[in-house]
Automatic annotation (TrEMBL):
Species name: Flavobacterium flevense
Protein name (record): DNA polymerase IV
InterPro entries in the cross-refs: DNA/RNA_pol_sf, DNA_pol_Y-fam_lit_finger_sf, DNA_pol_Y-fam_little_finger, DNA_polymerase-Y, DNApol_IV, PolY_HhH_motif, Rev_trsase/Diguanyl_cyclase, UmuC
Gene Ontology molecular functions: damaged DNA binding; DNA-directed DNA polymerase activity; magnesium ion binding
PROSITE patterns: UMUC
Length: 361
């Protein structure tokens, strides 16, 4: 039986509207205005939105057209990923002054294990405050933080006092915190699962906790075991300083929708070159090739094939993609194509620690 591991101090740092905040920092004329990074008035998808834009319902992953409809004064800004990587590197340099146990989730968020830290400070809350102050003073951006005994609770907590705030959930507070938490705020519970839980009478952590392991496994499969444990504060996943990628991908959204497989193949050739470059950069290869197709009506389809051997070569990737492309007829014109490689030749390390101690947060 797994036990709550309360002998850890985990910080989840989440930059506030990162891409949009970088653009506003670099261009004073954009400050205080609703902006969307990525997308366009008639095409594309929003990658990030400033807090001024979020008030109008503009958020990441919605179409540029819908974003403009929600916010007529919205300003679209072309993304500059090299700049975001540069800023992210500066932020991670600050992290390394406190711990080497850093697990990046993306350019704008990361877990830090500060149980044993370079400052010798027993208070994770004070460390989080110091890190956030340094990010603001040295980089010029605000960050929010969640602090608790595991990654699951820390990530949820970092969203509580956004933007530019932090929340600590001490060992004694974990269970009460989770019991009153709306189920839609549980990390790992998406929109579809939320609706299913509502139908089963599960609206809060307390109601989730009242369900047996058998009940949750019956309705949610393997995920049911995960829900059963996390609502009891059990999430012993370690902060991994070198995250192992599960897949490597490349994709492209087109200015004009494609309706001919010949034109699609031309674009897929370019995407395969980009994917090969990324695979070689990470020194990995994979067995499963997946073709991603997004149609003009925004519906999405994936087609996959698993090979008996690992590949990373552009020619072999494209050969498999051609098979997938001609597997069935396109149902509409295409606005986005992507290729991903999974079942990589990397090993996943698993470790479970179960110790129960008390300490100052």
């Amino acid at each position: 039986m797994l036990e709550v591991n309360s002998n850890r101090k985990i910080i989840h740092i989440d930059m506030d509207a990162f891409f949009a905040s970088v653009e506003q920092m670099d261009n004073p004329e954009l400050r205080g205005k609703p902006i969307a990074v990525g997308g366009a008035e008639n095409r594309g998808v929003v990658a990030a939105a400033s807090y001024e834009a979020r008030k109008f319902g503009v958020r990441s992953a919605i179409s540029g057209a819908l974003a403009k409809k929600n916010c007529p004064d919205l300003i679209f800004v072309r993304p500059r990923f090299e700049r975001y990587k540069e800023i992210s590197t500066q932020i991670h340099k600050i992290f390394r002054d406190y711990t080497d146990l850093i697990e990046p989730l993306s350019l704008d968020e990361a877990y830090l294990d500060v149980t044993q830290n370079k400052k010798g400070n027993p208070s994770a809350s004070l460390l989080a405050q110091e890190i956030r102050n340094r990010i603001f003073n040295e980089v010029g951006l605000t960050a929010s933080a969640g602090i608790s005994i595991n990654k699951f609770v820390a990530k949820i907590a970092s969203d509580y006092n956004k933007p530019n705030g932090q929340k600590t959930v001490t060992p004694d507070e974990v269970i009460p915190f989770l019991e009153v938490l709306p189920i839609r705020k549980f990390y790992g519970v998406g929109k579809v699962t939320t609706e299913k839980m509502y139908q089963l009478g599960i609206f809060t952590g307390l109601e989730l906790k009242s369900k047996s392991l058998e009940f949750l496994q019956k309705h949610f499969g393997k995920a049911g075991t995960y829900y059963y444990h996390v609502v009891r504060g059990i999430h012993n996943s370690e902060v991994k300083s070198s995250r192992i990628a599960k897949s490597v991908a490349a994709e492209h959204t087109f200015e004009v929708n494609l309706s001919s497989e010949i034109f699609m193949l031309e674009q897929l050739d370019k995407i395969a070159i980009s994917l090969e470059r990324r695979l070689k950069k990470h020194n990995v290869s994979g067995k499963t090739v997946t073709l991603k197709i997004k149609y003009s009506d925004f519906t999405q389809q994936t087609r996959s094939k698993t090979l008996p051997y690992f590949i990373a070569d552009k020619g072999l990737i494209l050969e498999t993609v051609k098979e997938l492309l001609y597997q069935e007829r396109m149902k509409d014109s295409v606005r986005l194509l992507g290729i991903s490689m999974s079942s990589l030749n990397t090993e996943v390390r698993k470790s479970v620690v179960a110790v129960q101690l008390k300490f100052d947060f």
